Amino acid sequence: MIGGKKLIGTFNDLLNYASELKGRRIALAFANNRETLLAVIHAKKRFSAEFILTGDNDFILNELKELGENLSSIEIIHCPEPTLATRTAIEYASNNKADVLLKGGIDTSTLMKLVFDEKYNFRKGNLLSDVFIFEYPERAENKLVMITDGGLILNPSLNQKIEIINNAVAVAHALGNLNPKVAILSSSEFVNPKLQSSVDAEIIAGMNRNGEISGCCIDGPLALDSAMIPESAREKKINSPVAGNAEILIAPNIETANALAKSTTYFAHYRLAHVIIGAKVPILITSRADKSDAKLLSIALGIIMSETRKRLTKK
Amino acid sequence: MIGGKKLIGTFNDLLNYASELKGRRIALAFANNRETLLAVIHAKKRFSAEFILTGDNDFILNELKELGENLSSIEIIHCPEPTLATRTAIEYASNNKADVLLKGGIDTSTLMKLVFDEKYNFRKGNLLSDVFIFEYPERAENKLVMITDGGLILNPSLNQKIEIINNAVAVAHALGNLNPKVAILSSSEFVNPKLQSSVDAEIIAGMNRNGEISGCCIDGPLALDSAMIPESAREKKINSPVAGNAEILIAPNIETANALAKSTTYFAHYRLAHVIIGAKVPILITSRADKSDAKLLSIALGIIMSETRKRLTKK
């Protein structure tokens, strides 16, 4: 339960909940890009969010006009140079003048370099990680399953894995899942001293049992099938609340998370949303390959995650 | 073309080709297991292979009788003790008295320990790797795509990755694909000195351009979408015959291959077959979780790979 809300267990729940939240401000880093402006227009129809667009004023106005869009709830800050536009958007997010940072027509590496620029204190010393969510149609209760981190942390150390877990657990909590089932993935269920991912998994699961990692229920090492498929967990005789029912999949490395997430999208055709968390506000790195559904869902996720910060700030 | 055969581009082609091959002998390591005996019965209906079953004679006879099976093309070697039965099956395979080694009611780690036992000279000093094949329905021409290695090599070095590639390429050649498109997977298309998988991919692609790795066409680093999805390859402006059309996916590590392969099975519900190659004969480690279709396809793959050895031996 979040503020009287029930579990957000599907992407439709996610859209509905995000559309109930009022007064969220989304800063768009370099809006000189028709595709991103289309996403803004779609999001405006669905949510009550306000958009702060940085970029070339004339270009943006012209594009919006061509797309038949009025300018209600849209503020344009004229900075035609991409890097300056991005810096401006980050400053807004860092200074509490925006609740979500959305990437526009700038490449991800440039945006992230600026996000990590210490002068904005936007990172607050935290680890930033990408949380990918897919909707798993074959599950009854909570269909939203997370995969992390497939975008930012190249060779996660044990400590970084724990921060990756905490970031994902924060997303689960924001979605009303207060004790998410976390699977630490490896290639099998056995601890092999020669396979670091299996050793780390064992340590992390132990730290969870000892209460050193809390707010979730962790099991590992688990292979994908024993984490996600109840029959596999049963056949392998793994007795844990997580096995077969995992809601967060912690990948052993960036390549596994990236390939697994892309496999759910391109092979299984599951719907998806993703968000980078750990910074002062959620960051949305929608890519050109993302369909409009994925962009809308990611914006909804960003709005909801910003709500979490609101509530935390009020405390 | 193999011996006048065209490309084996689907699993039905695979079944048909395997059923044309005569006189293959399959040694079953410890047949005291109803599930494996069922697979044998299915395979006997489809292929003309002969089976050499090691295990408890009375148990096996009784099970086969209960399953309504006659004993044509079945030889039973009485060794009721599982390890001894497995050793006997390996000896048959090692001494050219069997063309395929099939795991029965013994666990994989026990079998593999014996496979690696130098006294059988079964490994011949080669690297053994698991080649997983899925049938990708969204592709027109060759629908069979390989993922490797998700089962045996924990932390593949550059040299081991090259051996993994050569093993997979040998399977492609046996399936009539004489110049397979090989993608070296990483989490993106960029070489990052801090991410070994991307560095290795660049080196391997270079070695292929220089002719040091031959019999295939290699590109990398590629993320899964740029390897498999033509639209992604086009959007990312990657110009190579491999991008968007990969037929062999070389994973950066065992966890990525394992999760990706399981995702094609359990999320996308693609058909699958897999075989361990590198030893004197192909080894089939069908697991309890494999459906009967996967078992039959894997046996077909084993029969075809043994045919390759036959042809090589004749030279």
SS content category of chain A: alpha/beta
Overall number of strands of chain A? 11
Counting copies of identical and different chains, the oligomeric state is homodimer
Let me know the largest β-sheet of chain A: 6 strands, mixed
What is the C-alpha radius of gyration of chain A, as a whole number of Å? Answer: 20 Å
State which percent range the strand residues of chain A make up: 15-25%
Number of helices of chain A: 11
Biggest sheet strand line-up of chain A = 8-7-9-6-5-10
Mean of residue pLDDT of chain A? 93
Instruction: Give the largest interface.
Output: A-B, 42 and 42 residues
Per the principal axes of the C-alpha atoms, what is the gross shape of chain A? Answer: elongated
N-to-C SSE string of chain A, H for helix and E for strand: HEHEHEHEHEEHEHEHHEHEEH
Low-confidence stretches of chain A: none
Alpha-carbon distance between the termini of chain A? 17 Å
User: Helical content of chain A, roughly?
Assistant: 40-55%
